[in-house]
Design goal:
The chain is an alpha/beta fold. It is built from 4 helices and 3 strands. It has a single domain, classed as Rossmann fold (3-Layer(aba) Sandwich), CATH 3.40.50.2300. The chain has a 3-stranded parallel sheet.
Length: 104
């Protein structure tokens, strides 16, 4: 999970862990990409609007490393979803902020 808002990242990570999921959270998209290896993760949850590298570019790079990774994009609005859908065929779902654990 990659989100440059540390509060959102922490809340979502802890919420998903309560459902028994193993979650690795990253504040920095660059750090997430650096530590990403093929076959480790089933799904990447990526905030579309992050600093240093936007979520769309990060996702393209994650797919280059592991073509099997599925992607969930955290988006501020429904606008731009068509653009997000063209990022990669690995695109799985968009989740519009604000987010609840149940929606994720």
């Amino acid at each position: 999970m990659v989100d440059d808002n540390i509060d959102h990242l922490t809340i979502l990570q802890e919420g998903l862990e309560r459902y028994g999921l193993s979650v690795k959270g990253y504040f920095s998209p660059l750090k997430a990409l650096e530590e990403f290896h093929p076959g480790i993760y089933d799904v990447a949850i990526v905030n579309v609007m992050t600093h240093a590298m936007n979520g769309k570019d990060l996702s393209k790079n994650l797919v280059r490393v592991d073509n099997a990774i599925k992607l969930i994009f955290l988006t501020p609005t429904n606008e731009g979803n068509k653009e997000i859908n063209t990022v990669t065929s690995n695109h799985f779902w968009n989740v519009r902020k604000p987010i609840t654990i149940e929606n994720l």
